[in-house]
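Colleagues,

Please find the record for the two-part complex below.
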Amino acid sequence: KQEVTQIPAALSVPEGENLVLNCSFTDSAIYNLQWFRQDPGKGLTSLLLIQSSQREQTSGRLNASLDKSSGRSTLYIAASQPGDSATYLCAVSHSMNRDDKIIFGKGTRLHILP
Amino acid sequence: AAGVIQSPRHLIKEKRETATLKCYPIPRHDTVYWYQQGPGQDPQFLISFYEKMQSDKGSIPDRFSAQQFSDYHSELNMSSLELGDSALYFCASNSRAEVGRSAQYFGPGTRLLVL
């Protein structure tokens, strides 16, 4: 059974710092891995999608890496801003029977201190 | 670009009532997924449909049922509502031809509150 773990569960850092969020998954049979952002009580915003054949994706100040063989991904946020405060969810699209249901981690609650 | 549409956006029900949530996928998407996110929890997969047939089933209670219609929209029917059903319900869509190559596109969610 695929399990997705995110460490740390919560993180507070001063504005301007670079930071890394970690994600691990137990079954490497994935189609892709996504990082989502979720503000309190709001929907899911897809940040980055990494296909299983890729090693990283970049969007602005965000960089996500994928090491499929070791079951790990990191989300790097450069020059953090107070507006980055949110919960960040790692999710894998699990390849079973041609279905790609998404399995989420429990998220990292990020708070950027002004 | 058109996105996944969910209705209603907010719903308040009493215990033991029924609720119907609707999802309209992105045009030309033939696969729909339902997820439930309880307070402070991560989203959990409930059920998925492809071409109007149930494709996969997750942790969906027996009190819930869902279907996909000929226009590919989907409805999640919830009966005998319990307090623990209060959650944010997400719908996502994709094209089966794109499975593995593109992401599922998520709707804004329906927030259900059971009193």
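The mean pLDDT of chain B is 93.

Comments are welcome before we finalize the supplementary table.
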